[in-house]
Amino acid sequence: MLTAASAIAFLPSTDLDRSRRFFADVLGLTATDASPFACVYRIGATMLRVTKVNELRVQPFTVFGWQIPDMDAAVRELTDAGVTFLRFDGLDQDARGIWTTPGVASPHMTRTVVWAGRKRMVDTLPDWPRW
Description:
By secondary structure, the chain is α/β, with parallel strands linked by helices. 16% of the residues lie in helices and 27% in strands.
């Protein structure tokens, strides 16, 4: 039943105005709908709904990510736009914050970079080939 349906992703935000500015000014996305309750973006075939919440509980794992064809270009563009990438103790990241998964034979998710918003909601850019 759901195999042909499009997915909808949800991200929480305690400040929709700040989120709108980040998604528009930093990531270059255009809202397809906006209300006091949510902002909706179309990213490829996926709908992203950034939903207003009163309280945000930080998660210790990635909550959203993009499949990108060129990690180096994406990191350069995001850095130029003011994004700061996270550093983790014990993780061998390069000068830009990119971590290459050691010993992974799969071409999927071999390089990852992580950034966090004000409330440390973590987003990643895994360097995956398009399927």
